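For the sake of transparency, this paper describes our internal protein records without simplification. The tokens are whole numbers drawn from a learned vocabulary of local backbone shapes. One such record is reproduced below, unchanged from the form in which we store it.

. . .
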Amino acid sequence: MSNKPLKTLEHRIERDFLDHVRKPGRYIGGEVNQIKKDLAACDYRVALCFPDAYEVGMSNSGLPIIYHMLNSLDGVAAERVFPPWIDAEKVMRENRLPLYTLESKVAVRDFDLLGFSLASELCFTNTLTVLDLAGLALRSEDRTESDPLVFAGGGMANSCEPIAPFIDLFVLGDGEDAVLELIELLREGKRNGTSRNDLLLEAVRKFEWAYCPKFVEFEYDGLHIRSVESTEEGVDVRRSNAAVADFENAPIPAPIIPNIEAVHERVAVEIMRGCPWRCRFCQVSFLKRPIRIRSVDKIVELAKASYEATGFDTVTLLSLSSAEYPHLEELVTRLKEHFEPKYVGLSVPSLRVDRQLRLLPKLITSVRKGGLTMAVEASSERLRKIIQKPLSDEDLFAAVEAAYEAGWQRVKLYFIAGIPGETEEEIRQMVDLAHELSQLGKRVRGKPAEINAAVSWLVPKAHTPFSWFGQERREYFENIRRIVFDQKDKYPGRALTFKFHNIGESIVESAVGRGDRRMADVIESAWRAGARFDSWDETFDLDIWKQAFAQHGLDLEEMAARTFDPEEILPWEHLGGPDKEYLLKSYHRAHETIAAV
């Protein structure tokens, strides 16, 4: 990591690139609230990447926090980079234009550090695109002392073995405090001329949340892991998650206003981190511990500041389960008093349906009545017990009735299909439940309510009690879709709408997400064959992934459906998260609930 000469690519970008791509606004930077420092005056430079399209990355709430915190340090500059869309990647390769940051238009490879925020297994191929367009070797072992270090954080860091050979260092858990500590160490190492290897070794020895794949070796027995060993004295294989010490005062900077329409354009304030309910399918609820809350005063202060800096017309309260926030009614009342006269709406997603929720529709009477979103997950109370979601039909109907009485006209329901132990009758009950909620609207308001139901396919996730289960087969999910549509045909009218997640994407997510380090070969093969933006239906290609798995002697759907023995070593059990025995107890209780039918 030498002091590299910096040269802006702005002229080449204007001459050879912007006129030849769709949505050039993705690539020009200069947005309101961006931070642009003098790179030459900074002794450490970081390129931060959310490996998805600009409009998705600009909606992410985590990356802007790290961006703001790093730029608040004297002598440190952080700039943004996103993978170019398909058309733009082609133009960049044809013109040999290296990937650059949005703020200064400087090549990514001229930075000291390239950091990724990994939110999904389906962004892994985009990560390789970024490395390659930046002119970096894909594999960590092939990079040189003059290349930037590559680190990654986010939700996928806790199950990172499938992408481990491409990344130098992973930050496990909360990033706010950890990234500042890491940057301090790396800056000192740069000043002292410390080698990459010694710097990484120092990081993992100093920080329990730092994971460096090169210092961990695996021995395999077929598909199974025989052993996991550290290659360095004083470095434990088992890592722990970082937890921000002062959540109350952890920064929430004003959002950067995107150049083009983003997926979410809103003031977003995280009111609580963690969730007490531990639904057995939910990875985040098991990883984000302990539970921490912000005060009402702090949340209102942050929301006001972000609104003044952006003018966005919606304030969204973020958490895994907003109903568990202990001062929710006071918070909603305070925000409504301030923002309703300004014609700013209030959104409270992630609400658990219980008696507390019955009160909220009366409080959230913003000038715009959007749809009320509820994560029901399963159609029956029996299935909800299997997934450990405490929700009764009585509370569900009471909450929706209160919403209709407060003026809501639409309800969006989230269901999961493929839950262990579910029956065909319970699949049909998804439609029956949606119909009953629609008719409840007729009794309250005189006409059926619109019910939009989104059905996703259960993906067993690492660090959850369901991680030992296999995913159901493609044919099973296709049959569920037929059952739902057949049942829906029994109810005339247009009040009910059902949409389904892409089955192929869920299969890849399951097969890749629970893989070990050897999965990197499959990911690279898929990427070289053209896999890009795998979370987008318009670009996802299931055949590419099938062929990539076959190229390495594996079957994609077999790997997705793979079950794990409770006694075997899991590819992620050393990567933070709850104790294995704790998860196994919940796994066995799920089996007991299924068998009790």
Q: What stands out?
A: Residues 424-445 form the longest helix (22 residues).
